[in-house]
Amino acid sequence: MDKKVLFNDEILANPYPTYARLHEEGPLHYLDVGGKWAVWSVFSHAECSSIAKDPRCSAKRSQQMLLSLPLSRQKEFSELARMLGLWLIFMDPPEHTRLRKLLNKGFSPAAIEALRPQVEAIVDRMLKPFEQGSEIDLMRDFANPMPVRIILEMLGIPQELNDKFVRCSRAIAIFRGNPNRTVEEARAAQNALVELTNFFRETVADRRRNKGTDLISLLIDIEEEGEALTEEELYAQCIALLFAGHETTRNLIGNGMYTLLRRPEEAAELRHTPEMIRSAVEELLRYESPVQFTARVLKEDMEICGQPIRKGWTVLCMLGAANRDPKQFKDPDRLDLKRLNNQHLAFGAGAHFCIGAQLARLEGQVAIAQLVQRFPAMKLAGAQPEWASTFGFRGLTNLSVAL
To answer: Are 50 and 22 in contact (CB under 8 A)?
Structure first.
């Protein structure tokens, strides 16, 4: 069985020519993961969507994340796997169904749309100090802190903790986003999860005494109404919301702005036609997906794209490739901010469709629209942008611009 190497520096810089070549070769490929193990990986849009909805494919994969570590060291990180296993995205029904139903109350379309003035005010406050003509690092000065600021406000947590949460979020992202994980990355992620769990343990105890209108208070109310949300699940969902609210949205804003800055005519069209912002954000999500792959573990022997795969194997759904599938999208490598019927998989599909998708969309719309409107002369400047070394989460470490 031929193994293909996908996770290398060339792919970090630009995965799309490789995706295009693999699409031509077929929908399923056997990928080498750092020389230690290999996984079946699905590239087609139809099959990725189908696997995400198939009850025979399990989202319980936190234990599998330890497989790239030396066998003798995996036990050290059983707590890491256990804590991640409490996150909604790593659960199967009926636990997933129960928890999702509870959390949906805080993430309904109406609840998120009601946040628009709040998000607009935060973005406005953050952009106000930036002066026309000055140079900034858009990732460091805006895209990194902005989503955390919003999720902290939703959780009712002081803004001074922004840096701590960005640091912890990055440690978890580096572990989760690399198929070829190291012991050092696992330790940093485990330490970050322990630190965040201890923080939320104290915060939840305090919030029980002084309830407000924030998301933590809502979760406590749900728990106290007799719905089964355990104390540990409560901490875990707070951490998961913080992580997801930061990591994917920072990448949406960074990737989106980088894409527009390299295509000034598209940015100008968006500036002159601001009502395009909703379809523009959907296209930017498709074109430079913040999440490049997700995984499922087979609960039974299955045939995928004609290939028999045994129970217990992990299958990667290559969302970034599915979003450039020529069978699904006309001219998939062309950015079209007015693209209609854009059924991208940037937020996944099925029961595990991202619960925070509406919030990410709202933040992306507000942030990108304001940046494009306020700084019409903005252009790339200074240091060449670099892509973070997290294959699963595609995002920039820096983005120097002249305003």
So the answer is: no
* Confidence check: pLDDT of 161 > 80: yes
Distance (Å, rounded) from C-alpha 118 to C-alpha 124?
10
Which architecture does CATH list for 4-402?
A: Orthogonal Bundle (1.10)
Q: Which of 354, 276, 291 is nearest to 322 (CA)?
A: 291
Exposure letters 37-53 (e unless 16+ CB within 10 A, then b) = ebbbbbbbbebbbbbbe
The beta strand positions in 275-390, using DSSP E, are 294-298, 302-304, 307-309, 314-317, 379-380
Percentage with pLDDT > 70 across the chain: 96
pLDDT for 109: 85
Give, in order, the Cα–Cα distances in Å from 317 to each of 43, 201, 293, 302.
7, 34, 5, 15
How far apart (Å, rounded) are the C-alpha atoms in residues 319 and 18?
Answer: 14
Q: What distance in Å separates the CA atoms of residue 349 and residue 351, rounded to the nearest whole number?
A: 7
> Nearest-CA neighbor of 320 among 5, 20, 4, 8?
20
Cα-based distances in Å from 329 to 46, 280, 283: 11, 15, 11
